[in-house]
Amino acid sequence: MSGALASTLAAAPTLLQSGDGNGGDAAVLLPEWLADVLGLDGLGGAGTAIAALIAAFAIANVMLIQAALAGPWLKRKIAAAFWGKLGPNRMGPGGSLIIIADAVRMLSKELIVPDGADRPAWDLAPIVVAGSAMVGFAVIPFGEIGGVQIQLADPEIGLVLVFAIASVTSVGLVMGGYASSNKYSMLGSLRAVAQNIAYEIPLILAAGSVVIFAGSLQLSEIVAAQQETLVGPIPAWYAIVNPFAFVLFLIANLAEVGRNPFDIPEAPTEIVAGYQTEYSSVYFVLIYLGEFLHIFLGGAIAAVVFLGGGAGPVLPGPIWLIAKMWAFFLFTQWARQTFPRVRIDQLIEIGWKGLLVLTFANLILTAILVGVLEGDVEFSMAALQVITA
Amino acid sequence: MSTGEEQTDDAEQAIEPTEAKLTELKSLLGEHVLDTEEHLNAPGIVIRPDDVQAVLSTLKEEAGYDHCSCVTAQQYDDRYESIYHLKKFADPTDEVSVVVPTARDDPISESAAPVFTTADWHEREAYDLVGIEYDDHPDLRRILLPETWQGHPLRDDYDQDRPQIVTLRENANPLQKDHRGDPEDGESDTMFLNIGPHHPATHGVLHLETVLDGEQVVDVESDIGYLHRCEEQMCQQGTYRHQIMPYPDRWDYISAGLLNEWAYARAAEDLADIEVPEYAQVIRTMSAELCRIASHMLAMATFALDINGDFTATFMWAIREREKAQAILEDLTGQRMMFNYFRLGGVAWDLPDPREDFFEKSRDFLDGLPGATREFHDLLTNNEIFQLRTIDTGVIDPETAKDFGCTGPVARGSGIDYDLRRDDPYGYYDELEWDVITEDGCDNYSRLLVRMREVEQSAKIIDQCIDLLEGWPDEEREIQANVPRTLKPERDTEIYKAVEGAKGELGIYIRADGTDKPGRFKIRSPCFSNLQSLPAMAEGEYIPDLVAALGSLDIVLGEVDR
Questions:
Q1: CB distance from A343 to chain B under 8 Å?
Q2: Contact A340 B386 (CB under 8 A)
Q3: Do residues B236 and B519 touch, judged by C-beta distance below 8 A?
Q4: Were B541 and a residue from A65, A356, B459, B545 both cysteine, which residue would form a disulfide, CB within 3.0 to 4.6 Å?
Q5: By CB neighbour count within 10 A (0-12 exposed, 13-18 middle, 19+ buried), where does A69 fall?
Q6: Cα separation of B454 and B470, whole Å?
Q7: Predicted confidence band at B4 (pLDDT cuts at 50, 70, 90)?
Q8: What is the sign, positive or negative, of the torsion defined by CA atoms of A20, A22, A25, A27?
Q9: Cα B466 from Cα B460, distance rounded (Å)
Q10: Distance separating alpha carbons of residues A140 and A142, to the nearest angstrom
Q11: In whole angstroms, what is the distance from residue B368 CA to residue B373 CA?
Q12: Torsion (CA) B182, B184, B186, B188 in degrees, nearest 10
C-alpha cells in the first residue's frame, strides 16, 4: 500500500528539480535516475510509475530493516546499556538473531479477535498505523550519492505533506482503540486524539519558523539552505541558527511519536496498553512496526528540517541522514529510561499553555528577525502587527 | 537467668498498672463493663454486643485509644467472640482489648465501623471466616472468599471435606455487571472499569472496581482475596516450636521475610515467656533491617515503574541495590526469600564463617548505599515531572489515615509519628542511634520520601549492629535461648503483639488452648489496613494518580489476603 501511494506521489506533477546553487549540481531524483538507467523512459508514464515503484520498494525495505533492527534487538541492547545489563546475547552475534526468533514468535501467535470488535475498522487500524508512517518517507530527502538524490518525490509542499501523513497515524490509533470494544483501548484512543491535537500545532509552528528562514516548504530547498557554513566550520543548520525552535520541535516531536514522557496513549501501567491492548500476532507486529517507523520518521523530519538533512563529512548523505534518525531514536530511548510520564491533563496543559505560546513567540520573533536581516521592513512590520493584534 | 523472687516482683509490677488502668476504664465506661479479662499484652474488658459503638467511641474520644489495630474473631465452645485491639498512636504500649462475646446460636454483634473506619474490612473478614454478623455494618459481604462460598471456615462445625459446589452461573461474573454507575436511562457520563485482577499496576492479583467520569475516578473499591491461602488456619495446625516459623516468610513474600518472622517470634516468645539472648537480638535487628532495605528498594522500584510506566533504569537500579541486600541475607540465612532463619528464643545459626568476609560485604553494601540513594534522588525525587506527578496527589490527611488504621510509611508520610521500633521497643532498637522519619506532605511524594529516608536510617542501624557483632566476645555468642522442645502455653492465655514490618504494623494474636498448637492465630496485616484507605486517596483524582496512590501504598497481595 505504501509503495503504491509513494509511486502516485512520485508521479505527481509537483515534481521539481532540487537545488538552488548552494546545493551543488542539480541532482536527479531516485525514480528518475532509475527510469533512466533501466531504460524505462521509452514507456512514458508507465515507465515512470514502474521506476517509482522500484525506488519506493527499495526505500521501504531500508526502513523496514531499520525497524527490524531497532524493535526486537537494538532497543533491548540500548535499554540493557542503561540498566547495566548485557541484553540479548545468546542468539547469533551479539544476540542479533533474536530478530528472527522474535519475528517467528510474534507471527506464529494466535490472532485473537475480541468479541465486539468493529471488524473493518479493527482490521484496518494496524495497516493505517504502519502505512502512514511508511508513506511519510516518500518525501524525505536522504541526500545524494553520485549525483542521485535519494528521494522518491520532492513536492513543493513537502513539509506540510509529511506532517499531514505523519498525523494520519492518530486516525489509525482512534480506529483501533474505538473498534476494539475494550474500555482501556477506548481510553487510549481518546488520549491519543487529545495528545495529537495538543502537539501537532506546536510541532508545525516550530517547523514553520524554519520555513521562514528557508523561504520554502520544499524539503530539498530546506536542506539546501542549510549547506552553507555559519561561522568557521560550524554549519548553518537550523538547530544551530535557531536552537530554541529545535528544542521546542524535539519536545513536540516526542509527543507526536508518543514516547516518554508523553507515551500517554499506551501508558502501560495505567491503561494496560491503551489502543493496542486487544491486538495480537500480526496486527500487533504491524502496530509495533508502525511505532518504530514513526519514531524514525520523526527523526528524519527533525534531521531534514533542523540538522542539515544528509549533510556531513566524508560519508555519503543517506548514511548521515540515517545516523541522525538513529540519534533521534537514541534520544527517545534515553527519555524512556529516565523520564516519568506526565499525566494527561498535565500534558494538555503543557501543550496548550506552554509549547503553543512559546512556538508562536518563536515564529513571530523569527519572522521579525528575518525581515530585518533581509531588509524587508514590510515583512517585519506585518509580523509586528500580528503581535499587536 | 533471673531468680524466681525477681520474677514475682516483675509480675507484680506489671499487674499493678494494669489494675489501675482497669479501674480507670471501669469508671469511664461504668455499666458497660460486664467483666474483665487479662490478656498478656493488655487488659481486656468484656462488653455487651449491642454496646460496641458506645464503648469504642468513649474509648476513642475520651481515653485517647485512637488506633483500632486489629479485630480478631473466634469461636469458643459456648460463644463467639470479637476482640477489638485498641492502641494509642501516641503510645502503642497503652493497649486495651475490648472483648465482645456473642451467643453461639445467633452471633450478632454491633459493628464498630461507624467509630473506626478500619473495622469495616476487619469485620467483613470476621464475618467471612468466622460467621459473626455485625449489625449496622455499612457493607457486610464476604471479603477473602468468593461471594458464593458455603459456610464459614473457622467455625468448628465447618466441614472441610464437603466440596464447594457452586455452578459457574451462580458465581458473580464481574464482566456482566458492567454498567455500575450508569443510571437506568443510560445517559450517564460515567463508565465502570475493572482494573485487575490482571493488570500491570496492581502489583499482584488485586481487583479494583472503578467508576470513571472521563479520566477521573468517581468511585473505587478493592476486591481482594485472590491470593488467600488460609495462612491463619495453617498456623493453627502447626506447633509453636518449629512448624509455624516458615509461614511468615510467605505473607509479605517480597524480601520482608525476616520482619514477618519477627512478628511471630515476638508474639510467641512473649506468650511462652522466652528470653532471647542479646547477641541473637543484635543479629535479628541487623538482618531485619536488611530486609527492610530490600523491601523499600522494591517499593521504590515499583513506584517508579508506576510513574514512569515502563521498566526503566530507575526500576533496574533499585532492583540492583535490593539484590545486594539479598546476597547478604543469602549468606546469612542460606535462602533468598523464604528465610526461615528466626527461631523461638533466637536465630537458627550464627553469622557465616569467615565472619570478616561477611562484615566486609555488609560494609561494602552500606558504603555504596549513599551513592545509590543520590542516584535515586536525581532520577526520582528531584525530577520535575516526577514532582508534578506525585506532589499533592493521593492525599490522605493524618486523621483519616489514623481512622483507616494506616501504619508504616503510609502513616509516617502523613506526618503520624508512629514507629513500633521506637514506641514499643523490641530487639535491640532501643540501644541504637536512629531516627523515626516522618514527612508532612500526606501525598504520594511524601510516602516515597519516607521510604527513601528510612533506608538511610536502616543502614545506620545495620552499621551499628555490625560494630557490635564485630566486638562481641567469642564466648558470649549465644544465638539461642534454652527453649523446651514442646511448647504448651497455658490454656486461654491470649496475646496480641506487633512489630514494625516493612509496610507497617504487623501484629499477631495468639490464643493458647493448652496444646502445642495455637487455638487461634490471627494476623494483622499492615497492607490489609493500608489498602483499605485507597478510596480516600484516589477518589476524585485521575486514573494515573489512582495507580500512583496504589503504588505508594506498597501493598503485597500475599499479605493482604494471607
A1: yes
A2: yes
A3: yes
A4: B545
A5: middle
A6: 24
A7: very low
A8: negative
A9: 10
A10: 6
A11: 9
A12: -40
Domain extent listing, chain B: 17-135, 235-561
**Cell numbers representing residue B530 in the block:** 493500608
Q: Between B355-376 and B313-333, two packed helices, what is the crossing angle to 10 degrees?
A: 160
pTM of the entire predicted model = 0.83
Q: State pLDDT tens for residues B484-510.
A: 888 888 888 889 999 998 888 999 999
Rounded distance, CA B526 to CA B512, Å? 24
Classified as helix, coil or strand, A389 is coil
Query: Strand B96-103 and strand B43-46: pairing?
Result: parallel
Q: Give contacts of A345 with chain B, Cβ < 8 Å.
A: 215, 542
Confidence label for A346 from pLDDT (cuts 50, 70 and 90): confident
Name the CATH architecture for the domain at B235-561. Answer: Orthogonal Bundle (1.10)
Give DSSP secondary structure letters for B54-94: HHHHHHHHTS---EEEEEEEEE-SSEEEEEEEEE-SS-TTS
Q: Is B313 on the interface with A (CB under 8 A)?
A: yes
**A-chain residues near B543 (CB < 8 A):** 187, 270-271
Distances in Å between the alpha carbon of A26 and those of A144, A149, A215?
A: 11, 9, 19
Among A263, A338, A346, beta carbon nearest to B309 = A263
Q: Can B17-135 and B235-561 be said to share one CATH topology?
A: no
CATH superfamily of B17-135: NADH:ubiquinone oxidoreductase Nqo5 subunit (3.30.460.80)
Average pLDDT over residues A282-292: 88
Of A29, A48, A20, A52, the C-alpha closest to A149 is: A29
DSSP category for residue B208: E
**DSSP letter (8 states) at residue A352:** I
Question: Does residue B46 sit in helix, strand or coil?
Answer: strand
Residues 6+ apart with CB under 8 A from A116: A181
Which residues, in sequence order, are CB contacts of B397 under 8 Å at separation 6+? B414, B442
Chain A neighbors of B202, CB-CB under 8 A = none
- Closest chain B C-alpha to A24 CA, distance in angstroms: 46
DSSP B30: G
Which residue carries 518504530 as its cell?
A292
